[in-house]
Design goal:
two-stranded antiparallel ribbon, nine-stranded mixed sheet, alpha/beta, 8 helices, 281 residues
């Protein structure tokens, strides 16, 4: 029943510069956007373009100065350089010379006049499913938002020769509207005891066919040991290993009910996976 619910609702000059660039806007829903591909990345630009078309949203962007893919939830403990910049489409942003988490942490703790209502990271170039979640800077930055009491979406797009981020951006905008309008969805994401959830969202890039829908599914694993067989000599056992590809997408598949995010991506579905902020249930 819970799975169905998810599916249905499936300082000095810098301070002055920040104050001028990020004024408080009474009554607007505040979203902090970051990524791990860098402030000039195409996925970030498309996400911000779609979100900023809604004039009831106050969008602020704090993103890494350069590509920081695969850096997980690392953060900087030394001096941090933050400068005014623009997204690839020219939207005002701040470039943070550090990890993806640094942009989100700086935005929440220093850069914004008020804490955001929601954090969105992405849209990442390349899926963050299964085992990749542990090293993803997109997910890692979202985790730091949740650790500071703010729900977050981490959004990624499957790799291919030609990538369009539009469908994932529009879906994310719809989720924002759901978050604002649904008390049930909002309370689930805000969690219990100041422990919000992260939604890990992954859209496949279809070479043939089209995205087959969105499914709420748990994380999968690309490699699992499912048993042991007797080896060639005494006291030796050979693991029986099942491998699932992390980067295969078949949008013409006929599989109906994927069981994990890997199976969803591999069979043409977008996936949404709620993540806890840490290992505590």
């Amino acid at each position: 029943r819970r799975r169905n619910t998810w599916f249905i609702v499936a300082v000095g000059a810098l301070a002055a510069m920040l104050a001028a660039a990020t004024p408080a806007r009474a009554g607007k829903f505040r979203i902090l956007v970051g990524n791990d591909d860098g402030v000039g990345a195409a996925g970030l630009a498309e996400l911000v373009k779609v979100l900023s078309a809604n004039t009831s949203l106050d969008i602020s962007v704090f993103a890494p100065a350069t590509n920081q893919s695969g850096t997980g939830d690392r953060f900087t403990t030394g001096p941090l350089t933050v400068t005014a910049a623009q997204t690839g489409d020219g939207y005002p942003a701040f470039s943070v010379a550090g990890y993806p988490a640094d942009g989100i942490l700086f935005g929440i703790l220093q850069g914004l006049p008020q804490k955001p209502d929601l954090v969105i990271t992405g849209i990442n170039q390349g899926q963050n499913i299964g085992d990749l979640v542990n090293i993803s800077g997109t997910v890692g930055a979202a985790l730091w938002a949740a650790r500071n009491g703010i729900p977050a979406f981490a959004v990624s797009q499957g790799l291919a020769a030609n990538i369009s981020y539009t469908e994932a951006a529009r879906y994310t905008a719809q989720l924002v509207a759901t978050f604002r309008g649904s008390v049930t969805f909002r309370s689930r994401l805000r969690g219990v005891g100041g422990r919000p959830k992260i939604l890990n969202i992954n859209f496949p890039t279809c070479v043939e066919g089209s995205v087959r829908g969105v499914r709420a599914v748990p994380l999968g694993r690309s490699q699992q040991v499912v048993g042991y067989e007797e080896g060639a000599s005494a006291d030796v056992w050979d693991p029986v290993v099942v491998n699932t590809p992390l980067g295969s997408t078949d949008c013409t598949s006929t599989l109906r009910s994927p069981r994990t995010d890997l199976e969803a991506m591999n069979n043409g579905f977008a996936s949404v996976t709620p993540l806890n902020v840490d290992l505590t249930n």
